[in-house]
Amino acid sequence: MKKFAILIIFILLVASLHAAAAAERVVHPDPRAMTFQPLSFKVPEAERHILDNGMIVYLLEDRELPVVTMQAYLATGSIHDPADKTGLALLTGAVVREGGTAATPPEALDDELEFMASTIESGIGADSGSVSLGCLTKNLNRTLELFVQVMTSPLFRADRVEQAKNRAIEAIRRQNDDPKELADRELSKGIYAGHPLGRFPTIASVKAISREDMIAFHQRSFRPNSTILAVAGDFDKGEMLARLKKAFAGWKRTERELPAVPQPSPTGKNAVLFVKRDIDQSVIRMGHLGIEKNNPDLYAVTVMNVILGGNGFSSRMMAVIRSKEGLAYNAASSFQAGRRFPGTFDAETETSAASTLRAIGLMEALIRDMTQTKVTDQELSLAKDSIINSFIFAFTNAATVASQRARLEFYGYPPRYLESYRDNIAKVTREDVLRVARKYLRPEEMILVVVGDEKKFDKPLSTLGKVQEIVPDSTK
């Protein structure tokens, strides 16, 4: 019996050795030669409704988790700040939630939301405002009630107003600590010079803002008939629509309109802006006014920028400035299509002070080269595949989908923008890329911002033109 067991073990051992040898002889396919079916993805839809007061609502059910989210988009923004009270929208957006409501003091609001594990947040950016809600399904009724209070009857209690102002002033005092943020801000000021988008809060402008200013700004800006609400989560659509109609029934529509804001104009000339800082690494930013979302060349411009500097290690900027020359950890470009106003084109890097002018020269040369020769077939294919294949990640959950639909209508994107986006990217040719590069990349209008120590530069910054030294002041 013992000999038989030993024989069985020997046979199994031999069999396993033969199997291993056979596995080693398997020829695996070359990944570079493998082919796959085209990625198929249908853009999710959300159901659209209009309440009696004019508020537009997008609903999308998702029963996977017992949670509900809401995101309200409001037609407002810091573009409507008075010049001497820049920061009014930012502060109003914060205190709408932080300052409590007429029916619920701020401490009670904080405590009740924390007890329910619910969230209500608010904020106002450059061209929009938002109020959001997140809660467990079982706590929806009360959380929605508080959400409506925050949107329609904020208290702006005086002590919370002062707290928000003090935080803003402290942030302004510290805003020049990060050289990258400093460079980004000065570039925006240069590109949008003379326009509200080029204004930033100062200590003086924040101090000038009163509680009454915030109340008046809220009354001008928060209107149901200029609000779009995205709702997603664990609910029945019919029941949710009825709940929303009841909750917002007391918020009456109004025909008040915020004054129109003029479009920014290109500077028409280049500039060299320098901010002196005693640092070993120079921060470099350059750019000019870009395009807006309805530009028919949007898709070709998007592909062009991905090739130039918008696609990580496969972009030209990273390939040359980082990989080939070893001058920087990061080098990138961005061509933002503005939603209500033209966006910006900008390129950026950070490099050793001793290679500042060399890095600037390479960036400028790469930008000019885009306007002179066609990109390769490989560059074009990689850029388009990158954009098309990453499209799906814009729809990771129901809340994102509903908010995406609401945001597209809020900013007036053309019908079926999402459904046609990938096809429009796929149609872009090498000739299109060269054409839009020549049309929208304007080296002669480039604004250059450098933050660093000129004593350590490889060449004087003045070799690039007349230098304007910027002295940021955070004490006024």
Features:
Cytochrome Bc1 Complex, Chain A, domain 1; 2 domains; 42% helix; six-stranded mixed sheet; alpha/beta
Largest sheet: 6 strands, mixed
Average pLDDT value? 92
Q: From the helix content, strand content and strand pairing, which structural class follows?
A: alpha/beta
Helix fraction? 40-55%
Strand order within the widest sheet? 1-2-6-3-5-4
Number of domains: 2
Element order, helices and strands?
HEEEHHEEHHHHHEHEEEHHEEEHHHHHEE
Account of the protein in words:
- The protein is 42% helix and 18% strand.
- A six-stranded mixed sheet has the order 1-2-6-3-5-4, with helices on both faces.
- By secondary structure, the protein is of the alpha/beta class.
- A hairpin with a 4-residue loop joins β4 and β5.
- The chain has helices at residues 2-24, 88-98, 106-116, 140-152, 158-174, 179-191, 203-207, 211-221, 237-247, 298-310, 316-324, 356-370, 377-390, 398-410, 417-426, 430-440; strands at 47-50, 56-61, 67-74, 119-124, 129-136, 227-233, 271-276, 281-289, 291-292, 328-335, 337-338, 344-352, 447-452, 467-469.
- It has two domains: 47-247, Metalloenzyme, LuxS/M16 peptidase-like (Cytochrome Bc1 Complex, Chain A, domain 1, 2-Layer Sandwich); 271-410 and 421-469, Cytochrome Bc1 Complex, Chain A, domain 1 (2-Layer Sandwich).
- The model has no long low-confidence stretch (mean pLDDT 92).
- The longest helix has 23 residues, at 2-24.
